[in-house]
Amino acid sequence: MNAIPDTETLRRFLTLVARRLWFIEWLESGRDGLWLSGTVLLLLGVVHVILTPVPVLLIALMVAGILMGVLTRGLRRRPSLSQAASQADRRFTGQALMTTAVECMPHAKDRAAGIVLEQAAQAASRWQSNIQLTIRAPTRRASMIALVPLFVAVVLLSRPGASGSDELPDGVSPGEQPVIEASEQTGDIVLDDVATLRRELADDLRANPVPPRQSQDKPSLVPVVGDASGTEETVEVLLTVRDSPPGSSARAGDDPGDTAGDALPRPADADTGIDAAAQLERREAILLHRTGTAISGTGETDNSFADSASSIAYVAVDVLAAAAPESGRDRTTLTRAQAAYAARYLKATGDTHD
Amino acid sequence: MTESTQNFEQAATDLAMLETQLNAVIIGQQALVRDLLIAIFAGGHVLLEGLPGLGKTHLAKAIAALLDLTAGRVQCTPDLLPADITGSEVMLNNSLATAEFEFRKGPVFANLVLIDEINRATPRTQAALLEAMQERQVTYNGAQHALPDPFWVIATQNPIELEGTFPLPEAQLDRFMVKLQVNYPAAESLGDILDATLDREPTDDLQAVCSIERIAQIQATAQQVKLAKEVRDGAIELVLATQPDSASASDTAREHIRYGASPRALQSLVRAARVRALIDGRAHIAYEDIAHLAPPVLRHRVLLRTESELDGNTPDSILDQIIATWSEAHIG
After folding, report:
1. CB contact under 8 A, A115 and B4
2. How far apart are CA A122 and CA A97, in angstroms?
3. Does this complex have an ipTM over 0.95?
4. Would you state the pLDDT for residue B40?
5. Looking at residue A341, what is its pLDDT?
6. Which of B282, B313, B198 is nearest to B12 (CA)?
7. Which chain A residues have a beta carbon less than 8 Å from that of B2?
8. What is chain B's pLDDT, residue by residue, as a tens digit (332 residues)?
9. Hey, is the C-beta of B8 within 8 angstroms of any chain A C-beta?
10. Whole-angstrom Cα distance, residue A301 to residue B289?
11. Touching check for B218 and chain A: CB below 8 Å?
């Protein structure tokens, strides 16, 4: 009866080969992860610099996702004994000895299988000390090169990102809104200094006086603006007129063409700043509609007044009037649309408006 | 040392000794001698193709002498009849009324039959060998006569002077395990050939070193050589790569081959690989065995397209490409 050959030497050798292959697999996965994350971060960096700032959370999630994918791939690619045997044959020029030996392990009592296992064990003893030399890890150079896109991406992402301009109307650049900052809680624009804005408006009116209201030609126009001479007092007058009690000749909404639904609410009637803003938005819509539509019932559309500086001035003044802080409050919140109108007016007064 | 290990080692030793003896007689043809031994011990028939005067007949005689085999020889000519190979019945006495017939065995009734210039025999005579090679028996007048065991056919053919010859049909070619090319010996071997054969016939001095029983034992040992599943699948992949209609066909096969290797080719490949592993002292078949034996096993079973032949391609050149691709994938 033939002795059952010892398979421990063979198993130990193949286990060491499998571990070595797995380690190399992890290294290669890590290098692939470096390339992938570097490429993705590079693209994000380009987006960050050219288009819009990229949130840190998104970057962190991307990197975490890539790392998790790399680790998972490495875990799943653990070589089996058969795979280790196949690689050992290939790398040690084993001529399918290890592959055959693994298949012979369950049949060690068979004569020929026993011979194969004996020969495999002898070969394993010879090769065991050369595993690291024969099964080489990927070169460091390849891994170092993978750091290049990552480095470039870090440089790009550390720069200030491009600010978004989609909130502003055309022609208005971020540099022309020095007094407006976004409120992260409400999303509204907060005017830090309404007085500053009023002063600027007064200066603009002085430089570009608003033509007198031609209410007889355009009876639907809101009789808001009086004789604007561009002085600060005039602006105050305008605002005072806005705030005048009911019955006043300058009462807003008392227009021959007004219907009941067109009655313009007064900021003084508002209970809160938010309600005033909502009422103002309604008034803005009405103003826009009136300034852009036909008068005298002919149905003809007269858009000549629609985008002129004076119409913008009317709206802007309304905005400022509505934004007049209530007593005891130093800060006033404007919606984005209100701030956009104000900014547009400031811009428009400096432009050659066609 | 275990008993099984002894058997394997002894078998390897005997084969090595046979190889050495043959190389002493057939000088300058080491690769041919090894492949011939492999085919013989794998139980297959051999087709030798080479120019005249290269020692093909000499080789067959040497094999028969060393292995203590009975030998028969047939020189094929166009007028050769099937009965000249298989044998025929003869009348024992002159009286027709009391005639008795006896089957007289032909030259095919030997352990090793040398069929010289088989392509000169008519297809009818060639067909007489089909049953003998495949079934190891001869049927004459309804009676079957078993051939000796073991039984091998070593056939030779001349690649030139093909006028008036009859190329072997595919069915018969497929029954030869290997087709070996006999090439010119190297220049440095010619002197040794002259010294050995000028004044005497070297095969006359040969003594048998292996009995028929020992041949059977070695063959039984070779059958125990292990074939790993991965290597088996590799051999299958190689054979399928030669079949142009197969899903696993190589691009080379689709372009150049009309008919590829058969399942019998796969059997022959594995049987021969076992013996080669045994000669090398291994108890398992390696990819290298498959790669080395693929050309002699497959070259006569692969039929090229006419266009490919007209372009100057040969089965060997096409098979070399297919085997190279396969070796790259499995051996590295």
Report:
1. yes
2. 11
3. no
4. 95
5. 66
6. B282
7. 2-3, 111, 114-115, 118
8. 566 677 888 999 999 999 998 888 888 889 999 999 999 999 999 999 988 888 888 888 889 889 989 999 999 999 999 999 998 888 877 666 777 788 888 999 999 999 999 999 999 999 888 888 988 999 888 888 999 989 999 999 988 777 788 889 888 899 999 999 998 888 888 888 887 777 777 667 777 888 899 999 999 999 999 999 999 999 999 999 999 999 999 999 999 999 999 999 999 999 999 999 999 999 999 999 999 999 999 999 999 999 999 999 999 999 999 999 999 999 87
9. yes
10. 95
11. no
Residue B258, both tokens: 């009309």
Contact with chain B for residue A99, Cβ under 8 A: yes
pTM of the model: 0.66
**Cα angle value B219/B225/B231 (rounded, 5°):** 130
* Spatial separation of the C-alpha atoms in residues A213 and A226, rounded to whole Å: 7
Distance of alpha carbon A16 from alpha carbon A208, whole angstroms? 87
**Are the beta carbons of A96 and B230 separated by less than 8 Å?**
yes
- What is the rounded distance in angstroms from the CA atom of residue A127 to the CA atom of residue A64? 40
Contacts of B284 in chain A (CB under 8 A): 95-97, 100-101, 116, 119
The type of residue at B285 is: I
Preferred mutation among A115, A117, A118, A134 to probe B, highest tally of B CBs within 10 A: A115
Closest Cβ opposite residue B226 in set A95, A112, A118 = A112
Query: Cβ of B282 and A97 within 8 Å?
Result: yes
Residue with tokens 């190399």: A24
Check if the beta carbon of residue B244 is closer than 8 Å to that of residue A132: no
Helix (H) or strand (E) holding B146: strand B143-146
Q: In whole angstroms, give the CA distance from residue B298 to residue B267.
A: 11
A230: left (phi over 0), alpha (psi -120 to 50) or beta: left
Of B2, B5, B231, the CB nearest to A99: B231
The rounded distance, in Å, linking the Cα atoms of B37 and B40 is 5
DSSP B91: E
- Chain B residues in contact with A96 by the CB 8 A cut-off are 228, 230-231, 284-287
Cα–Cα dist A13/A16, whole Å = 5
Kindly list the distances between the CA atom of residue A252 and the CA atoms of A239, A308, B264, in Å, as whole numbers in the listed order. 11, 21, 105
